[in-house]
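All the exercises in this workshop are built on plain-text protein records. Sequence and backbone structure share a record, each on its own labelled line. The question running through the whole workshop is how a given chain folds. The record below serves as our worked example for the rest of this section.
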Amino acid sequence: MLSDIEIAKQAKMKKITEIAAKLGISEEELEPYGHYKAKLSESVFQRVKSQPDGKLILVTAINPTPAGEGKTTISVGLAESLNRIGKKTALALREPSLGPVFGIKGGAAGGGYAQVVPMEDINLHFTGDMHAITAANNLLCALIDNHMQQGNELKIDQRRILFKRCMDMNDRALRDIIIGLGSKANGIPREDGFQITVASEIMAILCLASDLADLKKRLESILVAYSTDGEPVYAGQLGGCGAMTALLKDALKPNLVQTLENNPAFIHGGPFANIAHGCNSVRATKLALKLSDYTVTEAGFGSDLGAEKFMDIKCRMAGLKPSCVVLVATIRALKYNGGVPRAELTEENVAALEKGTVNLRTHIENMRKFGVPVVVAINRFHTDTEAEIDVINRVCSEMGAEVSLAEIFAKGSEGGTDLANKVVSTIENCESNYAPLYDEKLPIKEKLDIIAKQIYRADGVTYTSQAEKALAEIEKLGFGNIPVCVAKTQYSLSDDPTKLGKPENFTITVRDMKVSSGAGFVVVYTGDILTMPGLPKKPAALSIDCDNEGSIYGLF
C-alpha cells in the first residue's frame, strides 16, 4: 500500500493557471509561487464582490482519538465528489503548522486518494504565511522591550506584559523563559515565554480580517500590557503596526492549490481549535463562496471545539450562513470511545460500538443547536463489519440524520459520491436556520455557562482566583460583550482528556482568561491546555528525510 506522500508524488498536477480558470480567475489575478501554487490578488475580491454566494458546507468530527477520524480527508474527498457529480465546488482549508508536522500528526493535507497538492510544500514552508505571522508577532514583542529600554514613556509594567513571542514549532523549553540577561545594553530582565505561531493573536487577526485596513486596525487594538498605574497598553500606542502590516500584506492573500483530481483548493490561515478559534481565513472562505456553487470547509478537532467556534465566532463576525454540517466519525474511533483498547480496534465489537455511539449522538445534537442540518460521514475502514455498520445506520436513523459510508481514502471522489449526493439533497430539502448559540452581549460567565452546559454537557463552570481576577479586568476594560474562545482539550467533551464518550457529573474549570482585543474575542483557558505544545518521545521529524536530489520522504 502506498503512503500518502508516495500517492502525492504520483499526482499529475496541472499548472495553477488551469486550476484558477475553473473558478473564472484570470492569469493576471494570480501571483504565482512556482507552477502549482499561487496567491490571489486583491483585484479578484473587487471583481466578484457583487456576485451571489454559493452554499457553505462545514466538515467537523467527533472527539479525535488515536484511531483517527480523517476529517481533512473527508473534506477533500467531499469537494472532489461534489465536482464529480457536476457541482462547481471549491475547498477552503487551514494551512498545516510545522509543530504537528514534525511532532505527532505528521502531514496535514488529507490522506490516501483525497489530498491537496503539492503536499510537501503545503506541509512545510508553503508560501511563507506562517513565517510572516511569526515575524510580525515578534516585531511587536521587540517593540515592547525596546520601548521599556528607551525610557518607557508608557510606564509598561514588566511584570504585566501579556503579549508573548512565538515560533511555529513544538518547543516546550520555551514556554517560560527569562530574557534580557547580561549587560544593561541587553534590555530589561523579565519573565517571558513563547507560544506556537498558530496560537498567536496575529494568526487569529489574519484569519478574521476583511482587508488590509481592517488588519491594521485590529493590530493596533491588541492589548499588550498594563502600565504601572494599571492602565491598559495597546499595540497602537507603541507604533510599528504599519510595519507589522507590511510584513503581513502578502500573507493576507489567500493561497490557491489543487486536489489530486485537479480541483481548486484555497488553503489559508491555520489557528488550532484547542487553543485558538480553529478556522481558515474569512477571506478565503468568502472568496470561495463567490467563485463556486458549493464551498467545503472544515473546523479543527471535534464539534465541541472547532465547529462551536466556527458558528459562534467566525460565522457571527463574517456574516456567514452554513447550509449543512458533515460530521465525520469512524467505527474504530467509536469503539475506542466505548472502551476498546487501541490494539483491539480492528476486531468486531458491537457492544463497545453501541456504548461509544453516545459520542456521535452528542455531536449530532450539538450541531443541530445551531439550526443547521447534519449529515454523518463514516470514514470506512476494511475492518468494519456489516454488524457494526448496521449499528451506525440504526443510530443515525434514530437521530434522523442521513449517513454515508465514505471510501474516499481508498477510492478518491468515486468513494464519496453517495456522501456528495446526500449532502446536496440535504441542502436542497432541509432549510438551514443558522443562529449562534448565545447572545454575545451576555456577561462572559453566562456565555461560558451556555457553552459548558449545552455543548460540553457539564454541570457548570468553576473559576480559579486567577480566572476571577482576569475576568474582572477584562470586564473593566469593556470587553465583556464579545464572543468567547475556549481553550480546552480536544480529546474529550470535558476538560479532562481521559473522559471519553459522553462524560457526566463534571464541571469545567477555568484557570485563566485573556482578551484578544484585536481578534475580537476572549480566550478562556481550561484544564491543563498549553499554548506551546511539546514534542513526543518519538517525533515525526525522526522519520522525515530529504535525498540528494531534493525529494522528501517520510512526510506522513
Notes: The longest helix spans residues 129-149. The CA atoms of residues 102 and 542 lie 8 Å apart. The first strand starts at residue 30 and ends at 32. The chain is about 35% helix and 20% strand.
